[in-house]
Fold this sequence. Notes:
The complex is a heterotrimer. Chain A is mainly β. Chain A has strands spanning 25-28, 33-35.
Amino acid sequence: MEPTDIQDQGTSAEAPDTPVVDTTELVEEELLVEEISIDGMCGVY
Amino acid sequence: MTDLQIPPTPAPDNMVLSPVKQSGLGDQMKAGLDAPICLTWELTYACNLQCVHCLSSSGRRDPRELSTAEAEAVIDELERMQVFYINIGGGEPTIRPDFWHLVQYAVDHGVGVKFSTNGSQIDAAVAEKLAGMDYVDVQISIDGADAATNDEVRGEGSFATAVQAMEHLHDAGFGEFKISVVMTRHNIPQVDEFKAMADQYGAQLRLTRFRPSGRGADSWHELHPTDQQQRDLYHWLLNRPDVLTGDSFFHLSALGEALPGLNLCGAGRVVCLIDPLGDVYACPFVLHDEFLAGSVRDEGGFQKVWQESDLFLELREPQSAGACASCGHFDACQGGCMAAKFFTGIPLDGPDPECVLGHGEALVEAADQALRPVGQDHSRPTPVKFLGRK
Amino acid sequence: MDFDASRPYRLHERVALRPEPFGALAYHYGNRRLNFLRAPELVTLVETLADHDTPRAAFDAAGIESRRWPSFEKALASLAASDFLVAT
């Protein structure tokens, strides 16, 4: 949904019926899971 | 958005991930949550010990303590709010007559419990009972790796009592209980011994920051770590990711790589304190009217205090760097600990008294200690007097 | 336990999910671990994983854009690594 976030490297922007030589696509990773220790917040003892 | 940028069929195997650019979790935590993730609940101000630096100035039971029914009602609220885990402390929580009932009530209602104790009530039978309980963690407090160092702060015989409790827990097969130490000038040199003790008992070591809170204010100037000790401790912790800290050394993150944790002050945002009377404070280290948000006895109970109190809403506003704005390290240290600043009588919008760059020193020197804020005092008439080193 | 994208997965029964503005908090009562799920779509996925034969089938059903699948797979893998998800 955010094409500006996608960095296209090596994929030519041709029409769908043109054979694609290099299909590698660089996609920005989203860090969707982060673990914090239940002990990792200040203000408890 | 053009069709040409979307492959005709999904081909995720041909995708290479480039590094993450994303706002930190910390920013979302600073804005607060609908319920605390964790909180501390001091069940009683009564205590059989009189530790020199007690953060809650405990000793005497306050007659206005929450009743068993009131405490159950708080637990019901925590369950509704889905608070996963609470730290029960005091005073010495195990000397409250309904302690075991409340712990069981909490776990039965989906609230995990860790309780912090000096170990005086943990005999072999209690240890067996604990070993059979699920969702209950135990934390034994000591402040020295030997009786001499420990008892100077916690009173004669307290080290032996704590070690005996550890033996009982170990023998009962409890598993990983926690050993928690408040780091001072006298015990920082003993860090390796603390680690060895934890390893010996199959326990997790936890080191936390000494703050000038409660009775701690009286000895803070003599007992708080030196600059060099802070640096040594930081590097020691970096090399030992299995040692817990409760994120209490986030002010040291200005020294370099951040220690594990959220690395920010959780007070009023992800944690808070419920005191024995049902008063709700931003955290256990600021038991003072200035940081009192409300009471569980008010209409709307704990939930209303957490979600709507003026104090907590204020703490969830973006905080300016204040006097630290010109320092390049503010992002790492967040200006340090509110409690440490408050009880040393220095401005809250400035550096931590133990700022690793030394920006707090002059402020502490300049502050008139006679005018610094003082919290409530629940001490018994004859607390352990800190005699200092000869 | 290594994540196997060809197997169906489900949420561990001892994991509680608590919705938050950023997604959800996930707490495992058994191992005391705490994970932040930083996208609402991830929360939906985790809740519906058990209804599908593979994680990718779940992504598809949830309408997640394919360019985001690697990130979501990585997320599920890390949840499986901390025992929040179990292979059925």
